[in-house]
Amino acid sequence: MYKEKKKNLLILIAFSAVLCIALLVGLAVSDKPDNRTLSATDFSTQTVVKTITEDTNNAVAEATVGYEEFLDTTVVEAKENGAEFSLTAFTVTEYETIAKMFASDTVNVRAGAGTDYDKLGKVAWGTEMQVTGVTDNGWFEVLYKDLIGYIRGDYMVEEMPGIPYLFVGDSRTVQMQMAVGSTDKAYIAKIGEGYSYFKNTALSQIPSYAGQGTVMIINFGVNDLSNASKYIKLVNDNIDTWVNAGITVYYSSVTPVGSCSVSNAQIESFNAALQSGLDERVHWIDSYSYLLQTGYSTNDGLHYNKETYRNLYSYYMSVISQQA
User: Fold this and answer.
1) Burial 281-305 (b: 16+ CB within 10 A, else e)
2) Where are the domains positioned within the chain?
3) How many C-alpha atoms does 38 have within 13 Å on its Cβ side?
4) Could you write out the DSSP letters of every residue in 45-77?
5) Which of 102, 161, 206, 225 is deepest in the core (most CB within 10 A)?
6) What integer pLDDT is reported at residue 124 of this predicted model?
7) What is d(CA 322, CA 77) in angstroms, rounded to the nearest whole number?
């Protein structure tokens, strides 16, 4: 049934393209070429050939629609003042049955297998897609809102992907979630917690969110700065498991405080111990120095306002992008 629907949709798409070209011809001036050709072979069972000829005073459009058993290629060409404009040509190998795949990131769905085709819309990370075929240039043909669409192959996976970003931490991580939201992000965090929560609760929850392609940012320590050696051992004991699962691990340094029960001198000592003791596969984010340099706002000496958390999040993303 979906193939019949696809055939009808593509007929409409082909004739829409014809009408657009005819409109361009009507606006042509006398010094433009005498002939322009639009040719396309549809994505499954039709061949649409459109030839447009014009003279100075009029334009005549002729269309021929035929049927073929297998897909060939799709190509649209036009000449305007000697310049040639074309869409990416591609072939589709259709599946006998619809396959299920998942979007591994927020990605555009396009009308053809190339970035030069119009956007039909976009799907978010983790969206389950019905896949009807694969193209010779590495895109997947999908069903999208009763339309035929195409998604780049490197944004589609067969298994539910790991969340792009996973934040694991204490109350500061909780408040970062409130400041920046949860789109393409997950949080394992609890107010007032530290090493024991990390070991006994958070550690077992990580596989539920993180997988191939996940970036995990850990931020514990402000509530138990005396446990630096325990944090180092816990992270180092699990880094093999995380890396083998496709997770990229970052540890964000404990950030500075105002007037509260701990001091920045204690924080600096904790950060120095972790930075030197963590496995080399754990990427260090020096968010402590970043906030000292850029400034921060805190009402209780320990937690920040939303603007500070958003700035800190942006810094995380800049560090991660530079190391990717």
Assistant:
1) ebbbbebbebbeeeebebeeebbbe
2) 2-86, 92-157, 165-323
3) 23
4) SEEEEEEEEE-SS-EEEEEEEEE-SS------E
5) 206
6) 85
7) 40
Q: Which amino acid is at 54?
A: E
Least confident of 3-7, 35-39, 221-225, 270-274: 35-39
- Taking the C-alpha atoms of residue 255 and residue 257, their distance in angstroms, rounded to an integer, is 7
Residues, the chain: 324
pLDDT in tens, 244-271: 999 999 999 999 999 999 999 999 999 9
Q: What is the CATH architecture of 92-157?
A: Roll (2.30)
Mean pLDDT in residue range 142-160: 94
The mean pLDDT value for 197-204 works out to: 98
Instruction: Give the CA distances from residue 233 to residues 21, 39, 124, 194, in Å, rounded to whole numbers and listed in that order.
Output: 67, 64, 36, 14
- Position 155 pLDDT exceeds 70: yes
Q: What is the dihedral of CA 80, 84, 88, 91, to 10 degrees?
A: 100
Asked if residue 56 has pLDDT above 50, the reply is: no
Q: What would the pLDDT profile of 105-123 be if each residue is shown by its tens digit?
A: 889 999 999 999 999 999 9
The pLDDT of residue 156: 94
* Helical (H) or strand (E) element with 252: strand 248-252
- Pair 319, 285: CB distance under 8 Å: yes
CATH 3.40.50.1110 assigned to domain 165-323? The reply is: yes
Structure tokens at 155: 């944004």
CA–CA dist 45, 92 (Å, integer): 11
Reported as half-sphere exposure (CB side, CA atoms, 13 A), residue 186 has a value of: 19
Strand segments (E) across 128-238: 128-135, 139-144, 147-152, 156-157, 165-169, 185-189, 215-219
DSSP H or E stretch at residue 21: helix 2-26
